[in-house]
């Protein structure tokens, strides 16, 4: 581990005890970025990804992503600002489209970094939030019944996932794309077959909501390596409540069941992703005991 990484880890540990040691991005073609700020070095790794039309990642963000893994060490906010300035200068003259973005993920509790990112035109778009393994909240008053989903529920689950994705297109990173229904249906089938941790809420037999979860252990190369402490975690992949059923306690009833099941697997906590601009989910998840650990910032379109 180099001195910059040691300094970064020390800063992260002081910011938030749930932050793991930093990890290099999974892309082997990362490009280094080195600067100085106030005589102190700061570094980072740049990656560039283009998602093919019709692919799963293209549903959830721009098709072209330029990402910075920043390691300002003990140079602090000044080092992060210098890295962003150098990144912008490096991309000057690079062709980009409206369907592109520059991204950076940073600890949510670092307010000084937030100020730097806002000043550089970035907006907070996604939070990775965590919940410690406390007893789940009660289901609260609700007319719905919650049961484990089966393969025969695939169409109802697909409609609920489609409703959630369409809403996320309005308030989050999702992007309207052709073929979304087919991709979401394939994901429903995969979740039913492999994780089995999918629940359906029904109001007098009518689908009112669904929750899809999984068990995850961070490992090199996956999307949560370097984002969560080592060990087994419960992942709340999707919670969707039918538009007509919102505000009736459906989400709370689903998560009472899902949390009880996940905690039964001995997880060290649960995690999920939500969008700060969503007027519904942040309040709900905070009441469920989640709090932001990482924030993904995005500038759209990418610098060019």
Notes on the structure:
Pfam families: Acetyltransf_1. InterPro entries: Acyl_CoA_acyltransferase, Bact_Acetyltransf, GNAT_dom. Residues 144-304 form the N-acetyltransferase domain. Keywords: Acyltransferase, Transferase. This is GNAT family N-acetyltransferase. This protein is an alpha+beta fold and 304 residues long. It folds into 2 domains: 3-128, Aminopeptidase (3-Layer(aba) Sandwich); 145-288, Gcn5-related N-acetyltransferase (GNAT) (Aminopeptidase). 31% of the residues lie in helices and 29% in strands. An 11-stranded mixed beta sheet has the order 1-2-3-4-11-5-10-9-8-7-6. Strand 3 (64-71), helix 2 and strand 4 (100-107) form a beta-alpha-beta unit. The protein starts with a helix and ends in a 5-residue tail after the last strand. The relative contact order is 0.18.
Task: Give the helix proportion (percent range).
Answer: 25-40%
- Describe the sheet with the most strands: 11 strands, mixed
Number of strands: 11
Structural class: alpha+beta
Strand content bin? 25-35%
In CATH, the architecture of the largest domain is 3-Layer(aba) Sandwich
Secondary-structure element string: HEEEHEHEEHHEEEHEHE
How far do the termini sit from each other? Answer: 33 Å
Radius of gyration: 20 Å
Strand order of the largest sheet: 1-2-3-4-11-5-10-9-8-7-6
What's the CATH class of the largest domain, please?
Answer: Alpha Beta
- Unreliable stretches (pLDDT < 50, length at least 5) are none
Total of domains? 2
Indicate the mean pLDDT. 94
Tell me the CATH superfamily of the largest domain. Gcn5-related N-acetyltransferase (GNAT)
CATH topology description of the largest domain: Aminopeptidase
């Amino acid at each position: 581990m180099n001195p910059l990484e040691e300094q970064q880890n020390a800063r992260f540990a002081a910011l938030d005890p749930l932050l793991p040691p930093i990890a290099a991005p999974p892309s082997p073609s990362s490009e280094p970025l080195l600067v100085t700020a106030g005589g102190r070095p700061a570094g980072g790794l740049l990656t560039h990804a283009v998602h093919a039309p019709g692919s799963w990642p293209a549903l959830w963000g721009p098709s072209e992503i330029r990402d910075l893994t920043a390691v300002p060490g003990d140079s602090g906010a000044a080092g992060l600002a210098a890295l962003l300035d150098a990144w912008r200068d490096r991309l000057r003259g690079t062709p980009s489209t409206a369907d592109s973005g520059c991204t950076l993920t940073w600890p949510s509790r670092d307010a000084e970094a937030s100020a730097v990112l806002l000043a550089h035109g970035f907006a907070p778009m996604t939070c990775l939030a965590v919940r410690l393994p406390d007893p789940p909240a009660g289901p609260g008053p609700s007319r719905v019944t919650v049961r484990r989903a089966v393969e025969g529920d695939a169409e109802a689950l697909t409609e609920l996932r489609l409703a959630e994705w369409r809403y996320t297109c309005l308030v989050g990173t999702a992007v309207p794309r052709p073929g979304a229904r087919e991709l979401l249906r394939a994901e429903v089938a995969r979740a039913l077959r492999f994780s089995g941790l999918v629940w359906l809420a029904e109001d007098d037999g009518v689908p009112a909501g669904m929750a899809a979860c999984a068990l995850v252990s961070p490992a090199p190369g996956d999307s949560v390596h370097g984002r969560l402490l080592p060990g087994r975690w419960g992942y709340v992949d999707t919670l969707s409540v039918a538009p007509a059923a919102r505000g009736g306690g459906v989400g709370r009833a689903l998560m009472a069941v899902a949390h009880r099941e996940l905690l039964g697997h001995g997880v060290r906590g649960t995690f999920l992703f939500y969008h700060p601009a969503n007027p519904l989910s942040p309040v709900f998840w905070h009441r469920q005991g989640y709090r932001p650990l990482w924030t993904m910032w995005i500038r759209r379109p990418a610098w060019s």
